[in-house]
Amino acid sequence: MTDTSDLKQRWRDADAEVDRLDEERHKLLEPTDPSYFAAIERFRKILFERLCFLRDHHGEPTGAKTDWGSDELYNLPRNLSADYDPDRELARAASEAGIPRQAFSWKSSVSFWDDTCVTARFGYAAPDLHHYPLSGGRWLICRLHGEDMPTIVAAVEAGTLGGLTVEPAPERF
Questions:
Q1: Rounded to whole angstroms, how far apart are CA atoms 93 and 36?
Q2: Which domain holds residue 162?
Q3: Is 173 part of any domain?
Q4: Smallest Cα–Cα separation from 110: which of 37, 42, 39, 51?
Q5: Is 66 in the same domain as 132?
Q6: Chain segment 15-56, per-residue pLDDT in tens
Q7: What CA–CA distance (Å, rounded) separates 149 from 152?
Q8: Single pTM value for the model
Q9: CB under 8 Å, gap of 24 or more: what pairs does 138-142 form?
Q10: Rounded to the nearest 10 degrees, how much is the dihedral formed by the CA atoms of 171, 139, 52, 89?
């Protein structure tokens, strides 16, 4: 079990860092720089840890008060996005990982509104791409969505429906 007081302090520190980007953070990491991949991996781990914590403590008091004087509650966001800047959870994880805000794609979002898929949109007016989990850590990625999806997912799993994008399981996860 993770010590929540340590996590809370790390998040408070990350929140403070989000509010002040020093000159080093204004320089974007280049994808050819080995530290770029290390920063992305740190970001992934930090964000995953934070979202799992929020999922496990959703609705519980944080110990802080809101501006209106009521108890602040942990809240698992159903949408992570970058409008012109990353939202709070992305900004926290990026700050802690050493990734500048400018590295985020504008007008992008990842949503998990329903329990059947993860929806991603990368850029202004970009189409929704729905990611449906398959066996073995694979993902069906398509623009299809709706009440027929369980049948479509079952057909993809059975190998009777081709022509759709199936992303293989990542090597490390």
A1: 15
A2: 110-167
A3: no
A4: 51
A5: no
A6: 766 655 444 444 555 556 677 788 888 888 998 999 899 989
A7: 5
A8: 0.66
A9: 138/166, 138/167, 138/168, 138/169, 139/166, 139/167, 140/164, 140/165, 140/166, 140/167, 141/165, 141/166, 141/167
A10: 100
